């Protein structure tokens, strides 16, 4: 009976959203439901964590695999991500995006930590080729709205000048600092800072306009 | 850092592309009790745009066993929610919850709006029990660390106590942060760390480093809230003044010498 009621509770939370989740926009009502879901997680409700896992794991796994390039590492990062969601549920702030974005941000941070540790500790010099951004494996599942969202972000990235896009990709997917990017690209630090600022401003404008139009 | 400088750097901050010192300066500015000129809004906008970047990557379904691994690690790290207390009360809660469920279902036939209200009541009922469990866990954790908290507070009142910030080594990143409170006169040190993720089959280990030689100074696991407070054995400090405090992730039980690179470091200022 307890199990039944617990499952019913989780089902209620899962059913609450009024439309599919997107990563950079979510109705306030959904955010509120996310907050309550995370409240349950912070109180030790494993079922609530499972609900978040079912919703966010494919995105978290996708970003980890993109950064690390190997499935064993991505598996490990996925586990670390949801253990961190478990311990940091109270820190979630709706002001900085939807629940899915928060989980993906954690996955990205853990993946970059692992990438740096791998390169530093093992002194590995060989390159780890990232997966192609356009790769379509048989195990990938992608709803229509997610594909549209991805196309929107890719279009926004593609609309940036190549040098701005490059610095954003190096910062986001490889976790390089502005100083490290400047060293790698052989550009002055000030130039890199300007490119990051201009690129991000433009990206935010495009995505904000797209969100407003949807 | 001015508000204008903060707004300009918020993009790089959200991307994680700042050097540790730059990052600390921005965080200091944000925590200043002044009338900020759009700093918080700029940071929120930067975080939203950064989060959106991930949407450029296609989602990939994790292996079917991934969730089982997460559950195993929750159990192994002792982070799993404790079983409900045996007795009548949980059954009463379950019974009441079930009754509320049935009531909500029955009313749904005629009053769709009412069912939403009942669902909210049901959620509150479950949440109350979970809240009680969470409080019990937190109380237990507080009891175990209260002595060390007292020691830390007492040390802070002493003028000779140094606060050594623990942060990620240059060129690395970690969400964890900490401080070592070190009093060279009393040869005491207390280390406080936050945002530590649980790691199955592994422990965190504190090191006191002198002349490049690390001495093990304590093995620990993070609490439910990801925090740790630990006191360094005075004998370790009596052997000589520490130069660096460091934290690594080690196999369960700790190691006699570090097996991984430290992810938190703090250098003691020479007096």
**Rg estimate of chain A, integer Å:** 19 Å
Q: What is the arithmetic mean of pLDDT of chain B?
A: 77
- By DSSP (H or I, 4+ residues per run), the number of helices of chain B equals 7
The N- and C-terminal alpha carbons of chain A lie at a distance of 43 Å
Helix fraction bin of chain B:
40-55%
Largest interface: A-B, 93 and 77 residues
Structural class, from secondary structure content of chain A?
mainly alpha
Total number of beta strands of chain A:
0
Assembly type:
heterodimer
What's the β-strand tally of chain B?
Answer: 8
* Main beta sheet strand tally, sense and closure of chain A: none
Approximately how much helix is present in the residues of chain A? Answer: over 70%
Shape of chain A: globular
Q: H/E order of the elements of chain A?
A: HHHHHHHHH
Per DSSP, what share of the residues of chain A sits in E-state strands of 2 or more residues? under 5%
Strand order of the largest sheet of chain B: 1-2-3-6
Supply the key terms:
heterodimer, A: 214 residues, mainly alpha, B: 271 residues, 4-stranded antiparallel sheet, 7 helices, globular
Tell me what you see in this structure.
The complex is a heterodimer of chains A (214) and B (271). In chain A, 72% of the residues lie in helices and 0% in strands. Chain A is mostly helical. In chain A, helix 3 packs across helix 5. Chain A starts with a helix and ends with a helix. By secondary structure, chain B is of the alpha+beta class. Chain B is built from seven helices and eight strands. In chain B, the strands form two sheets. A four-stranded antiparallel sheet of chain B has the order 1-2-3-6, with helices on one face. Chain B has a four-stranded antiparallel sheet with strand order 5-4-7-8, with no helix packed on it. The longest helix of chain B is centred in the middle third of the chain and has 45 residues, at 112-156. The radius of gyration of chain B is 24 Å and the shape is globular. The model of chain B is unreliable at 82-89 (pLDDT under 50). Chains A and B meet through helix 1, helix 2, helix 3, helix 4 and helix 5 of A and helix 1, helix 3, helix 4, helix 5 and helix 6 of B.
């Amino acid at each position: 009976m307890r199990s039944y009621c617990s499952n019913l509770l989780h089902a209620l939370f899962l059913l609450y959203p009024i439309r599919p989740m997107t990563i950079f926009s979510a109705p306030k009502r959904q955010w509120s439901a996310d907050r309550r879901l995370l409240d349950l997680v912070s109180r030790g409700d494993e079922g609530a964590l499972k609900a978040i896992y079912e919703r966010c794991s494919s995105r978290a796994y996708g970003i980890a695999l993109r950064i690390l390039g190997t499935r064993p590492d991505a598996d490990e990062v996925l586990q670390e991500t949801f253990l961190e969601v478990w311990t940091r549920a109270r820190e979630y702030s709706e002001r900085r995006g939807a629940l899915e974005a928060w989980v993906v941000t954690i996955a990205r941070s853990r993946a970059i930590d692992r990438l740096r540790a791998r390169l530093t500790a093992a002194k590995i010099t060989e390159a780890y080729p990232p997966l192609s951004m356009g790769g379509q494996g048989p195990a990938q599942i992608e709803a229509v709205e997610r594909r549209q969202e991805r196309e929107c972000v890719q279009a926004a990235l593609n609309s940036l000048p190549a040098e701005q896009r490059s610095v954003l990709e190096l910062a986001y997917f490889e976790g390089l600092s502005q100083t490290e990017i400047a060293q790698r690209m052989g550009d002055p630090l000030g130039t890199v800072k300007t490119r990051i600022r201009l690129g991000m401003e433009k990206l935010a404008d495009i995505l904000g306009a797209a969100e407003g139009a949807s | 850092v001015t508000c204008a400088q903060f707004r300009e750097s918020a993009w790089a901050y959200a991307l994680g592309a700042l050097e540790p010192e730059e990052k600390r300066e921005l965080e200091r500015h944000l925590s200043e009790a002044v009338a900020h000129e759009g700093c918080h809004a700029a940071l929120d906008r930067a975080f939203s745009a950064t989060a959106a970047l991930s949407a450029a990557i296609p989602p990939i379904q994790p292996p079917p066993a991934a969730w089982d691994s997460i559950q195993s690690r929750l159990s192994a790290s002792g982070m799993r929610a404790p079983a409900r207390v045996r007795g009548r009360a949980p059954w009463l809660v379950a019974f009441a919850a079930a009754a509320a469920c049935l009531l909500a279902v029955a009313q749904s036939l005629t009053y769709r709006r009412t069912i939403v209200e009942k669902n909210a009541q049901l959620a509150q009922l479950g949440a109350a029990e979970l809240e009680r469990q969470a409080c019990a866990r937190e109380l237990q954790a507080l009891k175990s660390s209260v002595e060390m908290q007292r020691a830390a507070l007492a040390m802070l009142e002493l003028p000779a106590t140094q606060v050594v910030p623990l942060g990620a080594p240059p060129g690395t990143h970690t969400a964890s942060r900490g401080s070592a409170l070190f009093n060279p006169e009393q040869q005491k040190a207390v280390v406080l760390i936050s945002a530590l993720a649980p790691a199955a089959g592994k422990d965190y280990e504190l090191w006191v480093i002198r002349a490049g030689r690390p001495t093990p100074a304590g093995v620990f696991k993070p609490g439910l809230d990801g925090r740790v407070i630990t006191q360094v054995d005075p004998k370790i400090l009596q052997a000589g003044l520490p130069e660096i405090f460091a934290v690594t992730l080690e196999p369960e039980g700790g190691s006699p010498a570090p097996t991984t690179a430290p992810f938190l470091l703090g250098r003691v200022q020479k007096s």
